Amino acid sequence: MTYRPRASPLNVTRAAVACCWCLALALAALMLSNPVDLGAVTVAILGAGMAAGVGRELRRAALLALPLAAVIMLVNALVTRNGLTVIVRLGDLPILGQTDITLEATAYGAILGLRAAALILCGALYTAAIDPDQVLRLFRRVSFRSALTATIATRMIPILVRDAARLADAQRCRPGAPPSRFALMRAASAGVLDRALDVAAALEVRGYGAARRPPPMSAPWSRHDLAFAASAVGLLVLAVIARIGGLVPFQAYPLLHSPAGVPELVLAAAILACALLPFADRRGIAR
Amino acid sequence: MTVLELDRLTYTYPGAAEPALRELSLEIGAGELVVLAGPSGSGKSTLLRAASGLVPHFHGGDFAGRVVVAGMDTREHGPGELAAAVGTLFQDPETQVVMGTVRAELAFPLENRGLPAATVARSVEETALALGIEALLERSTSELSGGELQRVALGAALAGRPELVVLDEPTSQLDPVAGDELISLLQRLNEDSDTTILLAEHRLERCLPAADRVIALIDGRVACDAAPDAFLEWASHGAPELQTPGARLLSAVGLSPLSSVKRARAALRANGMLPTAERGDRLSADSRSDPPGWRHRVRAPRGKRSTVQAALELDRVWHELANGPTILRGVSLSIAPGERVALMGRNGAGKSTLLRHAAGLMRPTRGRVLASGRVALLLQNPTDYLIHETVAQEASPGALAAVGLGASTFAERHPRDLSGGEKQRLALAIVLGDPGAPGDPGAPGHPEARSSVVPAAVVCLDEPTRGMDRGRKDELAALLRGLEAAVIVATHDPEFVAAFADRVVLLGDGAPIADGPAAEVIAGGTYFATETARILGGAGGALTPAQGAAFLEARARSEVIA
After folding, report:
1. CATH number, position B352
2. pTM for the full predicted model
3. What percent of chain B has pLDDT over 90?
4. Enclosing H/E stretch for B511
């Protein structure tokens, strides 16, 4: 999964704001436990991905996130002894001992899984929709070399994926039995080192070795910068009110208490509106 | 004013037994366009790396003597500091582009110098306009073609307005059109902005017309330092392998070698060997308006009509990407047993995809591929095939001998330590296999089923001559001509095609646009033609200097008789 410039409001927003907006979504997912509102955050991330033109990338991330969410739910249900509503008695299991599956542990496991899925999707949205070169500029004033190393490592991933595909094709062209996995691993490792040396030489001749701290850049804030900044603040305020203000109560143990009344629905609608409204303004985004 | 000065430079890579450069002294002045010539391993790349400071700062090794670039001694200034004065472009564009977008790539070297944002933005725009890549500025670098990537890498090298630009075989991965465009671009930069250019190339016929001076390196020493015509004169006796095809043609008919097609043709005309109206006569005789190679009728598949079973047959093969363009458009081709076929066309025309379909690495979305036996495929990078610790583990002695790698010399060497040409041969030995060799499945790393490998009915090679000097290309052409199987080579190199192929298939936008004997298809073109054919205007279908000289002598005899 790599970044490609696209015509969307999130793509044209300055990296600092776009990063903060993604961070606000991630914090909201971490702070909210009510399934209605956590679900709203997840839907907001998916909707933002589609509005940013990276729906395909998010779908791929979801294929990784959903099994992980299921595993988290299963593990929590199996290992957590809390909860009073037993729904399945599994008896005495090896390692786990006496195991009763409770409604509360299963529900809370599902919420933990949903939270993990939301965080993975948020990471995918960040990777696919925010320009890593701008992120590099953002961080290079703080720690230029670390930021550059991180960016180059990201840049190497698609190159190495292509190298691996080439290596696999070449091995398919060998007549006879396929070579051992160890031999392939060794060849792939040698190839990675060769590639790293080539990229390092290219960096040297582009002046990386003598890189200086760049001067500050000032550019006027666009309407999209302002909209996403307001959205990030709004998301954080909503999450904090819900968490600290007790607007949407949630309790997993010992008995599940997860209301889905008007306050929860209003908060969910507010989260969705706050996250997705900046995408409504598509002026000045054509590339 | 001197931009680059080398004073008695001797350099040995770490662990190497012999120096790559020996007592090298030369000066390059401001505004010169200098071509660096020499066979593989002669020290061209090392000299360029010394100019950019990578030697010795990046590679290490033993360094003696002095290199001064734009007043900076490279012993005291590393490549990072020298980058302000030297722009560097290597062979492989993919590993030189380090940022995500074209704009960021062009800005990267400027930002490294700590220039103000406004200066960076202005320089990026100016560089993009100068190189004609302004439309690419917002594109992701991962989406660019090889030619576009090379232009972007050149842009990154030029963005800081360096005094000296060093380029190491920048056209080796480009098709003839993109290669010629790049050379023209360099010439324009040199003329417009007085930028000094030092260019290492194997295909000298492509860049000599633009050069002010040629420096020939042999065994790490300067063997010749002269103007292009004087260099060709020297090469005719001092290093025949460095002669351009045009120079060999002129030498063969007793004329002094010249560095451009136009001047060579004028010399032939001035000596009465090529009538002024030659081209017009040929065209009127043909009563057609296009050069013959481009109008040759595309062959229908011979399949059922042929009495001999085809070694390989592609029957209306389509390759359409799920969310992308169509790569092959109903390609129908029939390759006879033992036939030598060159597949030509621009980057992205579908050559590599067609070979992958032939070898079964891809499945057509429509149509079918039929082969009479095993199809061996050698992909572009031979190193991808090398996975064992010794040459003997990679291929059997019989297979090594078949490609000219003596087992006694190479058996115990590490495959990655071989030269480029040797790696190519070893990879060819791997894909060809050795049907006659007894296998030893118990040996570690031994290709277990080698003893049961059936001989290849078709051998496909994808761009096998990239970065090869003429000597190695001639060796490869001889090797391929000696194979019993049908051979298909995808290549951009018309000189190699002339030496190897009986038939040329020219692909354009995923479909054959010309298919016929090599003499017909590549004699009449411009980009996909040999230098001899361009000098003679396609007359007589001569492709090689020897054929051209024979044609001119035959013409002279017939005129005497008349």
Report:
1. 3.40.50.300
2. 0.79
3. 56
4. strand B511-517
Tens of pLDDT, residues B168-223: 988 887 888 888 888 998 998 899 888 999 999 988 998 999 999 999 999 999 99
List pLDDT tens digits, range B55-92: 999 999 999 999 999 999 999 999 989 999 999 998 87
Task: Name chain A contacts of B452, Cβ cutoff 8 Å.
Answer: 176
User: Which of A144, A172, A205 best tests the B interface by mutation, with the highest count of B CBs <10 A?
Assistant: A205
A217 touches chain B (CB under 8 A): yes
Query: Above 60 in pLDDT, residue B442?
Result: no
Q: Is the pLDDT of residue B444 over 60?
A: no
B346 and B487 together in one domain: yes
Q: Which residues of A touch B461 (CB under 8 A)?
A: none
Q: Is the pLDDT assigned to residue A256 strictly greater than 80?
A: yes
Contact between chains at B79 and A183 (C-beta distance less than 8 A) = no
Query: Taking a C-beta distance cutoff of 8 angstroms, is the pair B418, B391 a contact?
Result: yes
Domain identity same for B225 and B361: no
User: Which of B435, B301, B305, B316 is CA-nearest to residue B373?
Assistant: B435
Residues of A in contact with B381 (CB under 8 A): 166, 170
Same domain, B546 and B500: no
Q: Nearest to residue B342, comparing CAs of B333, B93, A235? A: B333
Q: Return the residue of B nearest to A158 by Cα.
A: B142
Q: Which residues does A137 contact at the CB level (< 8 Å), separation at least 6?
A: A15, A214, A217, B111
Instruction: Quote the CA–CA distance of B33 and B51 in Å, as a whole number.
Output: 15
Between A and B, how many CB-CB pairs are < 8 A? 177
The rounded distance, in Å, linking the Cα atoms of B90 and B106 is 16
Query: Based on the domain organization, do B316 and B375 belong to the same domain?
Result: yes
Distances (CA, A) of B198 to B28, B165, B166: 9, 6, 5
Task: Work out the average pLDDT over A54-59.
Answer: 92
CB contact B446 to A (< 8 Å) = no
Residue A38, pLDDT > 70, answer yes
Task: State the pLDDT confidence band at A155, using cuts at 50, 70 and 90.
Answer: low
In terms of residue numbers, what domain contains B208?
2-243
B523 belongs to a structural domain:
yes
Write down the pLDDT at residue A217.
66
Q: Is B80 on the interface with A (CB under 8 A)?
A: yes
**Burial label, B237 (beta-carbon count in 10 A; 0-12, 13-18, 19+):** exposed
| Phi, psi of A134, rounded to the nearest 5 degrees | -70, -35
Instruction: Yes or no: say if B194 and B200 are a contact pair by the CB < 8 Å rule.
Output: no
Q: What is the pLDDT of residues B501-527, one digit of tens each?
A: 999 999 998 999 999 999 888 887 778
Mean pLDDT of chain B: 86
- By CA distance, what is B441's nearest residue in A? A177
Residues of chain A in contact with residue B385, where contact means CB-CB under 8 angstroms, are 170-171, 173-174
A206 touches chain B (CB under 8 A): yes
Task: Record the tokens describing residue B85, joined without a space.
Answer: 């004065």
